[in-house]
Amino acid sequence: MITIKVPCSSANIGPGFDVIGLALSVWLEIRIDVAQSATTKAPLNCVITYEGEGADEVSLSAERNLITRTAIYVLRCHGQRQFPETTTIHIINPIPLGRGLGSSGAAVVAGVVLGNEVGKLGLSKARMLDFCLMIERHPDNVAAALYGGFVGTYLNDLSPEDTERKEIPLSEVLPELEAGLDTGLEPPKPPVGIGHYMKFAWAREIKAIAIIPQFEVPTSKARSVLPTSYSRADVVFNLQRIALLPTALGHSPPDAEQIYLAMQDKVHQPYRKGLIPGLPEILQSVTPKSHPGLCGICLSGAGPTILALATDNFEEIAKVILDMFSKKGIECVWKLLEPAEDGTTVVYS
Ligand SMILES: Nc1ncnc2c1ncn2[C@@H]1O[C@H](COP(=O)(O)OP(=O)(O)O)[C@@H](O)[C@H]1O
Ligand SMILES: N[C@@H](CCOP(=O)(O)O)C(=O)O
User: Fold this and answer.
1) What is the DSSP letter of 339?
2) Tally of structural domains, the chain
3) 68 lines ligand 1 (CB under 6 A)
4) Which end of the chain is more exposed for a tag (fewer CB within 10 A), N or C?
5) CATH number of domain containing 172
6) What is the CA(110)–ligand 1 centre distance, in A?
7) Using one digit for the tens of pLDDT, what is the confidence trace for 44-87?
């Protein structure tokens, strides 16, 4: 059996929209067995079972499930049309869907690593990142999930021809999968070196409180409310803070006031407030002064989860935010998480 574990992630951390990612200690796990089966042939030779978050909404069809679809994309780029016969995949997913904790990023990373494993492709992590970026277009979640820890990411300036290749959405990368067909065509391969990452230090005292509202905000919707251009003042505001953020969060002992300031943002959070009742009040009223132990607070990814970074008083801080959401009629759960330094792991047993 092969077991692949991929951590969830919190993207942006305030000013680092589409740049910064933090892998956290909740893991998507997939268990894979490949064995000749006497039963009827499964589509794409793959049988999926699933437990955990999203069990009532995630497709168990290999042509539609994001994990297996991504794996098929990787396999077809290497001349393999389907999974080896018969591949059974059991998915255990504790990452809530559509909450800003990188469930889709983790699923995409799991799919790329799955394709690499069952196809015995021997891809490097850097090449796997290229495949991930063909599917999830912002690098912050997938780089954190693949490499682990607290990362800064960027996309390369590509040639016009490669830019065009990169911009093909997954539905067009594998159109035949939607219809359950196999045209025999090779999908477009990713350009080499689309994206890169760099790992930052993380002060060991800082933990992440995730307050997770019980409703979903699809990332695509949260991206559609963002403007296409920004004022110079807002861009400079974020640049000034993002220049400080990695150093502030890596410094031990942490300076809460500095971190709080370095986590302010004018590029995505203000525009997403319409999707998340109570967001501006929560971000403004929970500060290191009002709540000792707090270092900084932001929307996790595209939301609606709130990420509070703190060194102490975790329960009290969580409770204040739960109460503020509750006043808006929103129920939440909260988790105390730590950076997942190892990123994606593969174990053979
Ligand atoms: N474990 C999984 N298996 C299959 N599909 C998944 C899984 N996790 C997430 N997805 C897909 O990703 C979607 C959520 O993605 P997105 O809106 O980007 O939210 P998130 O912030 O959780 O990444 C789900 O609706 C589902 O289609
Ligand atoms: N930078 C992206 C991150 C989306 O993260 P997710 O966990 O909400 O999918 C964005 O802010 O749109």
Assistant:
1) B
2) 2
3) no
4) C
5) 3.30.230.10
6) 12
7) 999 999 999 999 999 999 999 999 999 999 999 999 999 998 89
